[in-house]
Structure formats: C-alpha cells, structure tokens
Amino acid sequence: MxxxxxxxxxxxxxxxxxxxxxxxxxTIEQGEAFGFLGPNGAGKTSTMRMIGCVSPxxxxxxxxxxxxxxxxxxxxxxxxxxxxxxxxxxxELTVWDNLMIYGxxxxxxxxxxxxRAAELLEFVQLSDRxxxxxxxxxxxxKRRLTIARSLINRPEVLLLDEPTTGLDPQAxxxxxxxxxxxxxxxxxxxxxxxxxDEAEQLCDRLVIMDNASIVAEGSPRQLIADNVTREVVxxxxxxxxxxxxxxxxxxxxxxxxxxLADRVLVYTDDGDTTAGAVVSDGFDxxxxxxxxxxxxDVFLTLTGRTxxx
Amino acid sequence: MSTxxxxxxxxxxxxxxxxxxxxLAFSTFVQPTLxxxxxxxGLGGLVSAHSGRVDGLAYLDFIAPGLLxxxxxxxxxxxxxxxxxxxxxxxxQFHGVVATPIGPGELYGGFVLWTTLRSMLGAAAxxxxxALLGAVPSAxxxxxxxxxxxxxxxxxxPLTAFSITQDSDLSFPMIMRxxxxxxFLFSGTFFPINQLPTGLRxxxxxxxxxHGVELARAATTxxxxxxxxxVHVAVLVGCVVVSAWFGVRAFARxxxx
Lengths: 309, 257
Description:
The complex is a heterodimer. Chain A has helices spanning about 45-50, 70-75, 95-105, 110-125, 140-150, 170-185, 195-200, 220-225, 245-250, 270-280, 295-305, and strands at about 5-15, 20-30, 35, 60-65, 80-85, 155-160, 190-195, 205-210, 215-220, 230-235, 255-260, 265-270, 285-290. Chain A is an alpha/beta fold. In chain A, helix 5 runs parallel beside helix 6. The longest helix of chain A has 16 residues, at about 170-185. In chain B, helix 3 packs across helix 10, helix 6 crosses helix 11 and helix 10 packs across helix 11 (about 225-255).
C-alpha cells in the first residue's frame, strides 16, 4: 500500500477571525490529476499554499509525501513543483537564466541544470526563446516557462494554481496538452481552477469547494451522474418575457429547473424530446439549446450559484 | 557538497548584477570621482587655504573615508526599499524563492548579505579612486572596505525588515529625505561631529553611519584607538543582529503565512 501523495484531515486555515479553509478532508494518490474546483474566494489557493508548505495550517492534519509540512517543510518543498497563480519569473533576465537560477535554489549542480533546462525548454516548446528576456514574452509563453521552471527539480507532485487563468483559448490548449503529457510520465498533478472545462479536461478526480468547505467529491463523470441529469435544455428567454411566469410554466418539462439571469436551465435525461415539447407547447423563447450536463451544473445544483459570479 | 541557502540567494542576486553590470559599473566609478572632485578637491582646497587641517588631516583625507561609507549607506538604503517591495509585491520573485527549499529567513539573510557584498564592491571602487587622488595615506586603508560593508549591513538589515511589511512605496522617499539624507550630512562625513552643538553630539553618535565613518577613517589614515574600534564594530554588529531578529519574522509573515 503506497503512501498517499497528500492527505488532509479537518485541514483548517484561519486569518484572524476569517476562516479561509474550514476543516476539509481529501486524499491525493500517486499519479492522479486531482482538482480543486470552485469560485474565487472558495479557499482553493489557501489550500494549495498549505500543501506547498509555504503557509502553516491553523488546524487539522496534513501530510505531504508522507511528511508533516510543519516539521519538514524544506525537504518536502524540494520534491514539489509549484506553478503559482501569478507569474513570478525574473522578467529582466533571460528564459535560460530563469531556469538556471531556479535550479540553484534546489542546490542542483550547474551541469545537471543545464541538461534539464534544455530538455524542459524543448518540452514546453520554448527552445528558440532560450536567450530572449522574459519581459516581452506572451502570457502563454510565460506560463509555459513557469511550468518548465517548476519541473527543474523533477518534482513528484506538481501544484498548479489556476494554471490557465488569463490565457487565450489557444494558449490554454497548449498548456493542457503539456500537462497531459506530464501526467502520462507519472507526475501527480494537483490543480485549482474555476473553469469547469479545465477540471473536466484534466482531472481524474476533484473536489468542489465553496465557502471554505468541500461540497462534493468524485470523478467529473461521477459528479455529474450523481448530482444532475444527463442533459440540459437551455431556454433563453425573450427580453420582454416575464421570467417568473415563464419559469413556472417551464417547471413541468424537466426533473428540475434553474433560473439564471438571462436563461432558464431545464434538467432532463432526454434533451431533444424536452426541447421539442417546450417548443410545441407554444413557447416562443429567443433560443433553445440542448447540451450535456457539465460540472458547472453540478456546482449550480449544489450551491445555487454559478462558478464565475 | 551542498551550498548553504543564503549563498544560493546571493547567487541569484549576483547573476542579476552580472547581467546588468554595464549600467551599474558606470555609476560605481563615476559617483566617487564626482564626489571627491567636488568636495575633496574643490571644497577641500578652500578649507586648506583658510584653516589648514581638519582633525589634523588634510580635508581630502578627512572626507574621503566619510564619503566612501556614506555612499555605501546610500546604496544599501536604496537597495533595501524598492527592490524588497518589488520582490514581495510587484515582480513577486520572493514568492518563487520560498516555494523552493529556501525559507523566508534564509531569503532575508541572503538578501542582506548580497547588499552588503555589493556595497563593499562599490566601496572598493571608491577606495581605488580615492587612492589615485592621494586621499588614502595608510595601507590599512583596505580595511575601509569591510567598514563600509558593516555600515551597509547595519542599514540594509533594518530597512529590508521594514520594507517587507509595506504595501506601497509611499514611505520610501520619506525615509530617504528624513532619515538617510540627514544622517549623510551630520554623521561626521563632511565635518567632525564636535562641530555640532553640544546637545546634538550624542545623537550623531547614535547614527550607524558615524560608527562606520569612524572605522573607515581609522583605516584610511592609520590613526586609531583600539577601544573605539571595538565599540564601533560592536554597535554595527548589534544593529544587524537586532534587525535580523525582526527581519526573519517579517519575511515569514509576508511570504509564508
């Protein structure tokens, strides 16, 4: 039986009277991609900082790579890779120097760092930029460099805090692709995100966080199966329709409905039939769209709110 | 063989310095030349013509060690403010460091150590220019370099500890104007502190700069009193030790809380 990569019991973080993380439990196994999904302020970053051994816990139990961050912070950090939410590269230095400096923080021999840096730049597709300064690089390139930097010590666990926030779609897909490849090499990925598509794409297992607590846990597919119907009919209402009466009328079409600011979601196992029924019943909505249920719907069902509000 | 974390922090700072050295080297040599030319030769010529000597020294010989240490202090003070806030808030590299095996206290120590070394580099350049101008009568003069270094550390250690607690750089120009500049002027740099009104003399003796200048002057002139040297060193070391106690905690609070 292998030791879990990260294990937390009743893990708590307080800042004065404010409770950022309120007694959460989770276990992250070797080789999996584990996600913390939740809106901003849910406690994801605080949790990551505790796992990264840069923020002491206020209560509960935490083991990272089998050790207690309170006693063994530096030796645990030597085996972790960290991709922070905000880039903290040395922007006035070159891509190459950034990797050299970071490798030295881990006390790796220079020859070793040079070898790894060349490989890593290849991996994140920045080999042709090795001698350019960091400052003029695009957001996506900086992110990839930060990922390369986080791998310089060949970490067993890679912590990624909102790895693609602020990137354009193309840059996001490139980052996702690299993270997939990493996972295949056996690195355990731990990431936070408030993008449900990122969680669905990358995570084998995830917990949904809201208000400093975990509200659900499972694989993306299992979370959807357990909490919502297979499909969703999105009914976009006419501007001058009266939402309250429309919602009341739509109720009978689905197992459950959610009213958002600009549209109503009707949860059903057969989207096409439901959509047909809605239209043939004399409704005249601005648009009707059938889609598969997502983690966004799970979050909405469990908390009554959307992820990005 | 493992390298101590403090040294690994210094390596980073040194690499940044090496990469940017051209711009920095210019000011390293030009500033002492300008200071010594204006104060030592220009003003010094006037002093010599009127009253002869200051504390038994030619004015150039008197002022050279003062300016040497004062420059080290100014450099250390500047380096201990904006770059510290930059590392914590604007550029955030400090957060990258503490994610590695290096802890916040070691980052603080490495930062102060580097600033000390860098001001010693500046002091060496200053000493070189001063020697060329004939302002260093004694071979003990090389000891002015560690004197400048200890003075720089005595400023860097508390200011770095302070800067890491700040959320903006609003207070920094104030510190420069109301703290560093008065010390620069009244710490026995340009004139002996016995020229100050009697009531003010003890205050000058509280200034770390005065202790640093006295040490450097003892070195460059070769005239010293052993007891005074021990006291000066003790004061400067004391400043560093007390500040480090706060600095280590302040860095942990800001970067690892």
